[in-house]
């Protein structure tokens, strides 16, 4: 399950703040499992665990970006929810980032046994992702089992690489359960929430153009969009825009979609 937030940019509260919604997305089933509004005087951090606590997550892997790289979040995911975590770590946790960076420093040859590389091409571009892992022994972090470094190189199909990005992370998954290839898949699948939830609401449903802002209406409307998208995907519709057109032409199709016929 991937956790991430999205701002409904058209929904501006009377005080000028924008409505921000935090979601938990089931990557395998391409559906939103839960959604929680983040109020103006707080942020995503204290809202994540209350949202996750309402779900059955035993044995699942929770992925989240650097904002949620918090000790208490890691502890509760493992101890209270029975799930594993994979968290991206950045400068908001400087001591931890320094420890991870030091553990993963060295030549490619030194990490040959714990490295995985994958390369994809499409739309005139190519991308190479290389992950190296190491045990988290001695790193002071709740239930830490492995640390990881992900390097992303991008460029045209032919020619030199044009850009490089490096990200670090930490996970409670031991090497016996998830080697570098598995961790690379978990890390990459985290972006499914951007591509299959946030993008669909933005582009297909034009959520950012919606001006609804009263009370819980922005949250409720986003929840309905998530529900409809999940129903389409469960029926086997990969193209959500085409599915909207198909079901919108006949109310009997809508009833059948939800099992009322």
Can you give keywords for this protein?
261 residues; alpha+beta; 9 strands; 32% helix; 30% strand; globular
* Number of H- or I-type helical stretches: 8
Gyration radius, rounded:
20 Å
Q: Please state the structural category.
A: alpha+beta
Cα-to-Cα separation, first versus last residue: 32 Å
For the largest beta-sheet, the strand count, sense and barrel status come to: 9 strands, mixed
What portion of residues is helical? 25-40%
How many strands appear in the DSSP assignment?
9
Notes on the protein architecture:
The chain is an alpha+beta fold and 261 residues long. 32% of the residues lie in helices and 30% in strands. Strands 3-2-1-4-5-9-8-7-6 form a nine-stranded mixed sheet, with helices on both faces.
SSE arrangement:
Elements: E1 2-12, E2 18-26, E3 31-38, H1 45-52, E4 61-64, H2 71-79, E5 84-89, H3 94-103, E6 115-122, E7 125-135, E8 146-156, E9 163-171, H4 180-189, H5 192-204, H6 217-234, H7 240-248, H8 251-257
Parallel strand pairs: 1-4, 4-5
Antiparallel strand pairs: 1-2, 2-3, 5-9, 6-7, 7-8, 8-9
């Amino acid at each position: 399950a991937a956790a991430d937030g999205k701002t409904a940019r058209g929904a501006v509260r009377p005080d000028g703040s924008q409505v921000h919604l935090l979601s938990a997305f089931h990557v395998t089933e391409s559906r939103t499992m839960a959604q929680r509004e983040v109020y103006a005087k707080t942020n995503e951090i204290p809202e994540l665990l209350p949202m996750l606590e309402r779900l059955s997550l035993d044995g699942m892997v929770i992925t989240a970006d650097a904002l949620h790289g918090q000790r208490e979040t890691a502890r509760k995911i493992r101890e209270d929810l029975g799930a594993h975590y994979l968290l991206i770590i950045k400068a908001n946790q400087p001591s931890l980032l320094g420890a991870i960076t030091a553990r993963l420093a060295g030549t490619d040859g030194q990490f040959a046994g714990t490295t995985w590389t994958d390369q994809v091409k499409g739309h005139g571009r190519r991308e190479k992702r290389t992950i190296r892992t190491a045990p988290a022994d001695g790193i002071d972090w709740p239930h830490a089992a492995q640390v990881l470094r992900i390097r992303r190189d991008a460029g045209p199909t032919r020619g030199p690489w044009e850009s490089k990005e490096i990200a670090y992370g930490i996970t409670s998954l031991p090497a016996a359960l998830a080697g570098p290839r598995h961790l690379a898949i978990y890390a990459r699948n985290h972006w499914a929430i951007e591509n299959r939830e946030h993008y669909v609401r933005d582009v297909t449903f034009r959520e950012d153009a919606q001006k609804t802002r009263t009370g819980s209406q922005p949250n409720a409307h986003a929840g309905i969009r998530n529900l409809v998208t999940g129903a389409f995907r469960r029926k086997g519709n990969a193209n959500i825009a085409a599915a909207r057109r198909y079901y919108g032409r006949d109310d009997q199709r809508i009833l059948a979609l939800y099992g009322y016929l």
